[in-house]
Each structure stands twice: as C-alpha cells, then as structure tokens.
Write a structure and sequence with these properties.
mainly alpha; 74% helix; globular
Length: 265
C-alpha cells in the first residue's frame, strides 16, 4: 500500500517539477515493495516509459515538441540502452543499485545548481562541439537508463536547450519522448532476465499518471524553487540510504563484481 502512495508522490513531482520523481521508482520497488534489483530496474523502465509518453503526448498537443531533436537524441539513447543491455548482463544487482545511488547524487546537484538565469541565454557551442556532445550525452544517458532504470531527464533537458537550441518548454516535452524511447529499448533488453508482475506495474503506472495530472493542476499554487530544493535534499538522503544498503560494493568492489553476487539486491 505504501508503495502505491509513493507512486502518487512520484507523479506529483513529475507534474509539478517536470521531472526528477521517476528516479525514486527503483528504490521504492526494492526497499518498500520488496522486489529484486533486476526486477525493480525492469519494472521502473516500464513505469518511467509509460509516464514519460503520457507527458510527451500532452506537450505535443500543446505544440512544445521538436521532432528532429527527438529523433536524433532518441536514436542515440536507444543505441546507448542497447549497449547498457549487454553491460547489465555482466553487472550484479548490488552494483546497479550502487550506481543508482551515485546517479541520484548527480541529479540532486543538478536540481540545486539550477539558476535563475535561463539556459537559453547562455553561450552556444559550435556545431562540431554540439554534435560531439549530443552523441556523448545521448549514448551515456541511454546506457545509464538501461543499467539503473532512470529516464535521465535531468541531463536531457539542459542538453536539448544548449545543444539543440530548443526553448525550455519544448526541451521538456522533447525530453519526455526521448526518455520513452530509451526506456522502452531498455525494458525490452530485460526479457529473460527478470519476471515482471504486470498487475503491479499497471496499477503503479496508473497511479503515477494520475499524480502527474494532479501535479500539473497544483503547480500554480506551489513554489517550484522551494519544492525543487527540498526534493534535491531528499534525493541526497535517499542516495545515502541506497549507498549504505549496498556498501559492500564500496568496501569490496572486486568481490561485488563476481558472478556469484549477480542475484543479490
């Protein structure tokens, strides 16, 4: 029951902040609902993909969507997710959760460092630099998506603004579609690695989507800046908890990478 309440909280954060909440999906499945790391990451990919697609459709209908950028970043992210699929077969669950902890720290830092100056007003890189950076970001986020079950919007949105030169609102809508593509590619890669409880996934996703619509309505009454900072500090706390739970990776990294630990959480 608590897991489904937290699904609503994830949707609310997505609706109010435009991203970030989905990074908590894996910890909820593992530490609240009791699923294994591999199962939880695969389940998270389905949930994040479905909720992102709903958000992308809403932005597309509102006209805040760029097809060209979505295709370029989407293809790169899907290729990265495929690479991540091969890596995930070799990486034990405990290592994947540890990586997630570090990704949560990076996401929290990005949220805290968001300045009042719009990204659109910052200097733009040259075409060559932009092309190389686009390839690196797209592939890297795709790999991360597959390995730890996150969408990567905290990296995609600023990249779409600075590299694809999109307005912030369009970047958010485009990012959601890219996330939907990369998570779908990542989820398909888990076939044969984990048995998924589709009834749980469907209910969790439906509640999260309901939370998005509620959050979109409440956004006008909530201070986004204050909520973003509070959520960032919460992410730091959650990251600390995840890393503590999987501290064996930090203490004995070589032992954690052995095949015998592949089934551990």
């Amino acid at each position: 029951m608590i897991g489904y309440v937290l699904a609503l909280a994830i949707g609310l954060s997505l609706g109010i902040l435009g991203g970030g909440g989905s990074i908590l999906t894996v910890p909820i499945f593992v530490y609240v609902m009791g699923y294994s790391a591999k199962q939880s990451i695969a389940m998270s990919l389905v949930v994040v993909g479905a909720t992102s697609l709903v958000g992308a459709v809403r932005h597309w209908r509102a006209g805040s969507f760029d097809v060209r950028a979505a295709i370029v970043f989407g293809v790169l992210a899907m290729v990265g997710a495929r690479i991540g699929a091969e890596l995930a077969r070799l990486v034990p669950g405990i290592v994947q959760l540890s990586l997630l902890g570090f990704v949560m720290i990076v996401a929290a830092i990005f949220m805290l460092r968001r300045r009042e100056q719009p990204l659109e007003s910052r200097p733009r890189p040259s075409n060559v630099v932009a092309a190389v950076a686009t390839a690196i970001v797209g592939l890297a986020v795709g790999v991360l998506t597959r390995l730890v079950g996150v969408g990567g919007g905290f990296l995609f949105v600023p990249s779409l603004v600075l590299l694809a030169r999109l307005p912030m609102k369009t970047a958010v809508g485009t990012s959601l579609f890219v996330i939907a593509l990369s998570t779908t590619s990542g989820a398909l890669g888990y076939r044969g690695q984990a048995i998924l409880p589709w009834d749980v996934i469907a209910l969790f996703t439906a509640i999260a989507i309901a939370g998005i619509f509620l959050g979109t309505y409440l956004v006008r009454y909530v201070s986004q800046r204050a909520l973003r900072r509070a959520f960032a500090y919460f992410l730091f706390g959650m990251a600390g908890f995840v890393l503590y739970q999987n501290r064996a990776v930090i203490a004995h990294p070589l032992a954690a990478l052995r095949p015998s630990s592949a089934g551990t959480r």
